[in-house]
Design goal:
The complex is a heterodimer of chains A (397) and B (313). Chain A is mainly alpha-helical. In chain A, 65% of the residues lie in helices and 6% in strands. Classes of the chains: A mainly alpha (397), B alpha/beta (313).
């Protein structure tokens, strides 16, 4: 092991003196993360904002519950009360303020409660609540429909519950009072949105992480290309004529690549956190993911290097493989939102597992990284074993 | 006589259908410099790669210091210092860093390592540039560093593979002087070259190798005698040339004497040794010798005789 450390220390010294190593290991991923995070995605600091008009012709407790209890407490929602349908139409036909939907004489959507809405809720009559979306509004109008659907669903549940209660005890209850009371009571079942927004990385973190793992595949190439380079320059003859085992030459090379990979990831994490506010997540989970990613990158690069005859060949093919896996894994755009085969294909790439692991860490415990880490270690072990076997076999002067 | 540092016999190595080394064997005693002389592609580098434990041999035996050498024989490798033909140094490291790195791989450390590095830097005359990156060195300086790394751990056997290729005359002479010194200090040296004059100057014994086969080996004199080479002696003379030629041809060491337009040409054994006798015979038989030109048999002619081609073809 002493010889392996000696070789690794020598390689690290050479890497420190190699300016191109700083480009691939630090400046390029950092620069691209900043470019993608800020320039290509100006909405990186996006916060939901919507302006909804409300025409309450009912004035009863149920419509009031929706307007004050639901819309009034929603974050980023501004409620504008209007008195006539004409005002509603004027607001939802107006151009939307492009900076977020609020302000000006427009509304992203309008809710219309007809007269007698609250009374209809306690009767068997159909209940009608109208949502009018502004065609110019995208997300905010969709959110308005979701608000309405959720409320309608709750009303239906309450109706069914009250009717069941009446059937059971045989006494007619005050449906309106009971319904409002039920709606105001916190639901015993708490739904956690565990699917989208809570598990998505913000743009800055997404691109910081994406570029970090993308360039990691270039950074760790030095181990394998170093072996082939030593053969080209003749120093491999010296190494192999020294009283050390061939395995220690391989281990030394891989050790230096591993350390370079880890250090480059740590530096990128620290710099992007401090400079641009990237939020990588809980340190332990991120550490496990980074270790898995470095092992996967080393394994795949070793696999490619095991079939290469020159360092240039290994470098070129590794780069191509890294770029393809990076695209498939969604380091440049979030393929998890793309749907279809594209969102599934990301799992053939360690990049995809790494990004998924980081996203999962947002809304989950440490155990959410187990699958991504195991997948990446699997990539590393399988590809690395084949690659290292071939590299060791081909270790010659 | 002390036991040989290197003993190899019956070495055979093929690459596919090509037999690169065929039944090669020789030995080197402590303090002896053995030259492996042959043209490019003769099998010299393959032979020393097997001896240095870089290549697995197909057949044969290699023993260094009594221990068998194989690619996995790490202990035996401690006895060998290899100076590859190509510069095997790290250009982005200085001489000290190169020496320290390879010294550590040889098991040197601490004060011993520092002491040896300083000593070798002195031997290769790079002490004043020791901390500069070796990529800034001249070709000769790089070559000297290349040799210095091989010497660092005081190997019992130093293998130098064509160490003067592409080196300016001044550096070449410095390298040859270093090798001569090492031999005098008791180190066994295996020196491959295709420069006849280097082999003649440095080597106690020489093996002539071509097409993977060791054609002949011995001291320079032995080699010349093995192939029965004679010297050519050209006498520019006047007088009774025919009588003189007949008298010279009667001498036992003269193989042939022929009268030419301006004198006599002799084919003779060890011309320098028998020159006084030749001149005395010429005087006695009535010829006046104005000048003498001797072409002694050398390794070039031996090689030509053995292989049918010149050494540098």
């Amino acid at each position: 092991m002493g010889a392996a450390w000696t070789i690794a220390a020598k390689d690290l010294k050479q890497r420190l003196r190699d300016r191109s190593a700083y480009i691939t290991g630090l400046f390029a991923p950092l620069g691209l993360a900043l470019v993608f995070g800020f320039v290509l995605n100006p909405l990186s600091d996006f916060e939901f904002a919507a302006r909804y008009a409300v025409l309450d012709l009912d004035g009863g407790p149920v419509s009031e519950l929706f307007i004050d209890g639901i819309l009034g407490t929603a974050e980023g929602v501004e409620v504008v009360s209007v008195a006539t349908l004409a005002e509603v139409e004027a607001l939802v036909d107006a151009e939307i303020n492009p900076l977020g939907g609020t302000g000006g004489e427009s509304a992203d959507a309008a809710f219309v409660f007809p007269a007698g809405f609250s009374d209809d809720v306690q009767s068997e009559r159909p209940v009608v609540m109208t949502v009018i979306g502004n065609q110019a509004s995208g997300t905010a109008a969709g959110v308005a429909v979701s608000f309405a659907r959720g409320f309608a669903s709750e009303l239906t549940s309450v109706r069914v519950a009250v009717a069941t209660l009446e059937g059971l005890i045989g006494i007619e209850v005050d449906r309106l009072a009971t319904g409002v009371e039920v709606l105001q009571t916190p639901s015993p079942v708490v739904l956690i949105d565990d699917t989208a927004a809570t598990k998505q990385l913000d743009a800055v973190t997404f691109y910081a992480a994406g570029m970090a793992i993308f360039f990691l595949f270039f950074t760790v190439q030095s181990g394998v290309t170093g072996i082939l380079e030593e053969r080209r320059t003749g120093t491999m003859a010296r190494l192999l004529s020294s009283p050390i085992t061939r395995a220690s030459v391989l281990v030394g090379k891989m050790l230096s690549a591993f350390l370079v990979g880890i250090v480059s990831m740590i530096v990128l994490m620290v710099v992007t956190s401090l400079v641009v506010g990237a939020d990588w997540g809980p340190i332990l989970g991120v550490t496990l993911l980074v270790l898995g990613a470095v092992l996967a990158a080393m394994g795949i690069v070793a696999f490619v290097g095991g079939f290469a005859t020159t360092s240039e060949q290994a470098q070129t093919v590794s780069s191509i493989v890294g770029i393809i896996l990076g695209f498939l894994g969604g380091t440049f755009f979030d393929v998890s939102q793309a749907g279809g085969i594209l969102s599934q294909l990301r799992f053939v790439s360690p990049h995809g597992w790494f990004m998924q692991g980081l996203a999962d860490l947002r809304g989950g415990d440490l155990e959410v990284v187990i699958a991504p880490v195991l997948a990446m270690v699997g990539f590393g072990v399988i590809a690395g074993t084949i690659g290292m076997t071939r590299l060791k076999k081909g270790l010659r002067a | 006589m002390s036991s040989p540092v290197l003993e190899c016999s019956g070495i055979h190595k093929s690459f596919g259908d090509l037999a690169a080394v065929k039944d090669v064997g020789f030995s080197i005693a402590p303090g002896e410099t053995y030259g492996l002389l042959g043209p490019n592609g003769a099998g010299k580098t393959t032979t020393i790669s097997i001896i240095a434990g870089l290549l697995e041999r197909d057949a044969g035996e290699v023993r260094i210091g009594g221990e068998t050498m194989t690619p996995d024989a790490t202990n035996t490798k401690r006895l060998v210092g290899l100076v590859p033909q190509d510069l095997a140094i790290y250009p982005d490291l200085g001489a000290t860093e190169n020496l320290e790195f390879f010294g550590r791989l040889q098991g040197l450390k601490g004060p011993e390592l520092r002491e040896r590095v300083t000593e070798v830097l002195g031997i290769i005359e790079l002490a004043d540039r020791a901390d500069d990156r070796s990529e800034t060195y001249s070709g000769g300086m790089k070559r000297r560093l290349n040799i210095g790394i091989g010497l660092l751990h005081r190997p019992a056997l130093l293998i130098l593979d064509e160490p003067t290729v592409g080196v300016d005359p001044q550096s070449r002479n410095a390298i040859l002087e270093s090798v001569e010194r090492l031999g005098q200090e008791g180190m066994a040296v295996l020196y491959t070259t295709h420069y006849m004059e280097e082999a003649e100057r440095l080597c106690d014994r020489i093996g002539i190798i071509d097409k993977g086969e060791l054609m002949a080996e011995g001291t320079q004199r032995e080699l010349v005698q093995i192939v029965g080479q004679r010297d050519r002696l050209t006498l520019t003379a006047a007088g009774a040339l025919a009588a003189t030629a007949a008298a010279l041809e009667a001498l036992p060491q003269v193989e042939e004497a022929a009268v030419t337009a301006d004198g006599i040409t002799l084919i003779i054994e060890r011309a320098h040794d028998h020159l006084p006798e030749v001149l005395a015979t010429a005087a006695k038989t009535g010829s006046i010798v104005k000048s003498v030109d001797a072409d002694t048999a050398d390794l070039e002619s031996v090689f030509l005789k053995l292989t049918g081609k010149a050494l540098r073809e």
